[in-house]
Amino acid sequence: MPDIGTGTTPLRVAIIGSGPSGFYAAEHLLRQCDFIVEIDMFDRLPTPFGLVRGGVAPDHDKIKSVTKRFDAVAATPHFRLYGNVTFGQDVTLDDLRAYYHQIIFAVGAQTDRRMGIPGEDLSGSYAATEFVGWYNGHPDYRELHFDLDQRAATVIGNGNVAMDVVRILARSYDELRKTDIADYALEALGKSHVQDIYLLGRRGPAQASFTPPELKELGEMECAEVIVRPEDAALDPLTQEWLKSNSTSVIDKNLALLADYARREPSGKPKRIHVRFLTSPVEVIGTERMTALKVVKNELFPSSDGSLRPKPTEQYETIEAGLVFRSIGYMGVALPGVPFDEKRAVIPNALGRVLDPATGAPVPGLYAAGWIKRGPSGIIGTNKPDALETVQAMCEDIKAGSVPAGPVQGRDALDAMLRARNVEYVTYQDWQLLDKLEVANGQAVGRPRLKFTRVEDMLNALRAEKARM
After folding, report:
1. Residue 349 in 3-state DSSP?
2. Which residues have a Cβ under 8 Å from the Cβ of 264 and sit 6 or more positions away?
3. Which terminal residue of the chain, N or C, has fewer Cβ atoms less than 10 Å from its own Cβ?
4. CA-CA distance, 50 to 109, in Å (whole number)?
């Protein structure tokens, strides 16, 4: 049997998902010098980059510059993208085992956690992921409608996504027009009647998940001001004691910014962002659609692990609002034929090696990276060391001879199989054509980019462009 990873038998790796964790895994694999490797990356959309394209807020363009690094990965001859190919539908796990020695699942966390309160399914109640996908032009969400005729909106959570939702609701039309926000979302938000936006966190200001730059940015918008009540910026004695051993520069800067907001006099801007703490939703009020959100005041108590946790009091309040966006965490989704931990909503794994739930032993040749591996935590850069850990496990397994070494077919055979199934796959070169078209379409109307937001529009544009070449 020939050695895997040699010139005659290159290591064949499939990566399911083209977000940051998938690209970082590809980069690590290409940089290791012990094996000759061929990497094929699959994504169900014709466009790569996962949440960098479909999740990062359009007014945070600098964060998207990481795609230049991914361009360099894709430019190597040992890498190939198969976009518009759905795992479990166009190709199955059994299919891929015939073409690859190792398979990495890097599909992220595709759904959201629910609040679990009465009225959550009323019209006007949404997952933040739906709103984010909508304004970013994700094909799965572009047909959604958000009733922006409402005067007030509430956002549950105070992490990165919650802050993004607040900013996009508070931005002016002129501010949004300078971004690559989807054209239909730009028009809808430009006509929005939302004036008051409530950002509700269940813990105190010292435990907030946002960072100082995000908090500072809220106070720098053209048409919105930040309102913090003195009691929301104040620290209870328990928190003051907790900070003596848990204070960080991030917490200190957040607290200073919040104290500054609490001292400010209202400036009269047309939109107001109300930052509230120790507040949890208990009921979405309404009949066919929501009209208000009932919330409870929390207080902190020390838990057994030393952290401060919230518990409800008997103090309730009703916030009149026609919209609520829940941003309390993402959840992974099971993949056909792949082990899944329903409780943690991740693929069970040890250092990236997928585990058989029945035996607890690694499943030969299967690996995970990113949020589907560790859960929805960290920022884009967090996926780099996470992916490295997985790649190191893969390399160890090759050296140990614990990788399936059966007959593995090459790209020509894979291409033939996809064509036989009438799968119109999209290469990275195809994506680069789409990228140029989006930029050109945007420049024609004075915007940085106009995204294609329907898969069929993407494929039609590619067909037309190739016909002209």
Report:
1. strand
2. 225, 226
3. C
4. 11
Give the residue among 53, 453, 115 at the shortest CA–CA distance from 284: 115
The neighbour count for residue 87, using CB atoms within 10 Å, is: 23
Same fold, 11-110+332-426 and 112-330: no
Residue partners of 412: CB distance under 8 A and separation at least 6: none
Given the candidates 3.90.79.10, 3.50.50.60, 3.40.50.300, 2.60.40.420, the CATH classification of the domain at 112-330 is 3.50.50.60
Query: What pLDDT does residue 32 have?
Result: 82
Interatomic CA distance for residues 9 and 101, integer angstroms: 10
* CA 359 centroid distance within chain: 32
Distance of CA 447 to the CA centre of its chain: 24
Fold of 11-110+332-426: Rossmann fold (3.40.50)
What pTM does this model have? Answer: 0.94
Token pair for 296: 């409870």
pLDDT of residue 83: 97
Closest C-alpha to 168, from 5, 43, 341, 327? 327
The predicted pLDDT at position 405 comes to 73
Phi, psi (deg, nearest 5) at residue 310: -90, 150
Angle at 461 (CA atoms; ends 457, 467), nearest 5 degrees? 150
Distance CA 463, CA 430 (A): 10
Token couple for 246:
């848990």
Which of these, 104, 139, 138, lies nearest to 17 by C-alpha position?
104
pLDDT-flagged residues of the chain (< 50): 1
Locus of tokens 């208990």: 282
Question: Which is it for strands 79-82 and 37-42: parallel, antiparallel or unpaired?
Answer: parallel
DSSP code at position 382? G
Token look-up 């399936």 returns 404
By the 8 A CB rule, do 85 and 425 touch? yes
Tokens matching residue 39: 């990497």
Say how far apart CA 207 and CA 254 lie, in whole Å. Answer: 10
Output the pLDDT for position 1: 41
